[in-house]
Amino acid sequence: APLLDFRCLFCSKGVMAAAGSNPYAKGEVDWAIYGFMVPHSAIRLYTEKLAAAVDGLAKMQEQGQAVPVAASEAFLEWYVEYYYFFVHHHHGVEENNFFPWIDAKLKEKGLGGIPVKVSTQHEGLMSALDGFKDQLGQLVEASKMGVAGSGKRSEILVGLSRDVRKYATNLYEHLDEEEVNVVPLIRQGITEEEMAAKEQEIVQGLGLEGAKKGLPWIMESLDFYDETPAKVSVSKFYGNLPPPLRLFMWASWNSAHATQNKGVVEALALGETPMKGAGCC
Q1: CB contact at 8 A, 197 and 212
Q2: Cβ neighbours, 10 Å, residue 129
Q3: How far apart are CA 260 and CA 252, in angstroms?
């Protein structure tokens, strides 16, 4: 099947996360770094959107001394259903599947293993994710208090903004360390064919619900970071997907992503309450 043009579906509603220093702007992304680029690009891009959404709600609070209940509820729902799910799943796959597999392959060839620091950083990041969920739940309750909850809302948003930015700094450092330290080991101890098979196994491990949420998100993020004229990484990822998943993406998953994931977090970043119930299946 030909590569679909996703740019119209995934164009931003007046909000685009700052590219910053693109870690994948290296001319050609080889097969070893590509395995990290697939999930890491989605996490990098949407961590910026998470921070922008916090700023959007803070703007609501500052300008009107209120955060609509519907906006705070939409933020919590988006966070749990999309961001928390995807990042938590990714870290879990690395800890329980991907890294142990790499370690075993390296030890078979007497090449040592993954640095301990890289494999033990997830605990702090997971703890931060749980903390954000609690803070957003508190924001929902404070939003229901109306004028009486104004001070509490401001306090929550100040803390959330601070914590998300600290988390983002630690997260980016962690992702960078994984790519810098683990990719050379992959090149030494694993073949391109073995890596491709493992990547397919991980995609299949998402299940249908995870694939619905994750695949269009990955496509958008790869497109954002892939600076090659032909969008090589985007084409490679899409081309490796089984035809039924491509059909599902075309039929409904892309539109669901554009409204229920991307559309929600970008509306919040603009200080708007997302429309409820947009998108399908």
Answers
A1: no
A2: 17
A3: 12
> Measuring CA to CA, how many Å separate 223 from each of 220, 237, 269?
5, 11, 21
What whole-number distance in Å separates Cα of residue 52 and Cα of residue 41?
17
Amino acid 102 reads I
Check residue 3 and report its DSSP letter.
P
Residue 11: what residue type?
C
Alpha helix (H) ranges present in 11-149? 31-64, 69-78, 85-93, 99-108, 116-119, 122-143
pLDDT per residue rounded down to tens, the chain (281 residues): 334 444 434 444 443 344 446 777 765 678 899 989 999 999 999 999 999 999 999 999 998 878 999 999 999 999 999 999 999 999 889 989 999 999 999 988 888 788 777 766 788 889 999 999 999 999 999 999 998 999 999 999 999 999 999 999 999 999 988 888 889 899 999 999 999 999 889 988 889 999 999 999 999 999 999 988 889 899 999 999 999 999 999 999 999 999 999 999 999 999 999 986 554 55
Residues, the chain: 281
151-174: string of b/e by CB count within 10 Å (b at 16+)?
A: eebbebbeebeeebeebbeebbeb
Q: What is the pTM of this model?
A: 0.89
Q: What values do phi and psi take at 277, rounded to 5?
A: 80, 10
Gap between the Cα atoms of 65 and 146, Å rounded: 9
Q: Which amino acid is at 170?
A: N
Residue type, 107: K
